[in-house]
Specification:
single chain, alpha+beta, two-stranded antiparallel sheet, rod-shaped
C-alpha cells in the first residue's frame, strides 16, 4: 500500500502524486481499492486485467491482412484455407493408381503428374 486517502477536492494533488508514484514503483501498474467497489488494476501499457498479458501498441500494420502482424492466423491473410477432401481426390477406392484412382490426375493435361506417381 502506497497511500490511503479520502477523495476530496482539496487532496486532488496528493491523489495524483500517489498514482504517479505507484506507476513508477510498480513498473506501469497501479491498483486502486475503492471501499464498496473493490480493487481495480490500471496499467500504462496495453495489458489484460484478467491474465496480465501485455500487447504492443496499436499500429496500422496490425489491421493489414497483407502483413503477418495483421493477417488471420488461420488463412495467413490469404482469405481461404487450402484444404483437400480425400473423398473428392480418391472417389473410388477400388481403383488402382494406374487405373486413375486419383481423380485430379485423371483429367486431360495431368498426364505428367500421373506418370510421376507411377
Amino acid at each position: 500500500m502506497l497511500d490511503r486517502l479520502v477523495l476530496r477536492a482539496d487532496n486532488r494533488h496528493r491523489l495524483i502524486e500517489a498514482i504517479e508514484t505507484a506507476f513508477q514503483e510498480a513498473e506501469g501498474l497501479c491498483q486502486v481499492e475503492v471501499i464498496g467497489h473493490g480493487l481495480r488494476t490500471y496499467s500504462t501499457d496495453f495489458r489484460c486485467q484478467g491474465c496480465g498479458r501485455t500487447f504492443e501498441p496499436l499500429r496500422p500494420l496490425l489491421f493489414s491482412f497483407n502483413h503477418p502482424l495483421g493477417a488471420c492466423p488461420e488463412c495467413k491473410g490469404f482469405g481461404n484455407i487450402l484444404q483437400y477432401d480425400r473423398d473428392l481426390v480418391i472417389p473410388d477406392r477400388s481403383r488402382s493408381l494406374a487405373g486413375g484412382a486419383i481423380e485430379p490426375w485423371s483429367k486431360p493435361g495431368s498426364d505428367w503428374w500421373q506418370k510421376q506417381l507411377l
